[in-house]
Amino acid sequence: MFTLKLVGFALVLLYWRTISRHVFSFLWSVALMWGAGALVPVLAVLECWLLDRHPTTERAAILTIPIHYAEMILLGCALVVAFRFTQAHPMAHVAVPRWISSPVLKVLGVFATLTVLNLAIRGLGLPFAAALSKRLASGWLYARSRNPMLLSSLLFFIVGAVWLQSLHAILWTVLWLSPAWVLYVRLYEERELEVRFGEAYLLYKARTPFFL
Fold this sequence. Notes:
The protein has one domain (2-207). The protein is 76% helix and 0% strand. The protein has seven helices and no strands. It has helices at residues 2-21, 26-53, 57-88, 98-123, 148-163, 167-197, 199-207.
């Protein structure tokens, strides 16, 4: 299992590196930035169906590894291509000074790091299937939000689009990337947590908001 995770993570990094260095045509850029994002919730529906056929802790742990890596590939591809494309084909310039957006990005980066540490300490796990949580993380930041890591990540990329001063990038991030990512979490990740942690997660879910 550990070897599988290492190979999967290495493939994801290699894919991201290849995508970031490749120059795509206009049509391919459009297809990737919209198509890759659209596949994320579709993948979640498929994997949720597979999990519900045999909803066991072992099956959830096995399915989560490939689906998390597939999600990383799709979202990473969509983000890289979209941010490059929206700069090359700007819809409109958003005149937000970078001296405002830059410190906000840094704060969100710190917040995202804290959510990872929170998960590692309270849940004994790491994001993106690097290490599935061994216990339910419901304290500290996770006491106020079921998904503080998702929240900080989405805000980071939205502010990143603002930093690019591109209306095109902002609209794509808010109207396409964010809904796709939220659907993935709602459809698959929350179901997978229900299977692995049972009644404890259902009680936590009932008392803790999705975001805030």
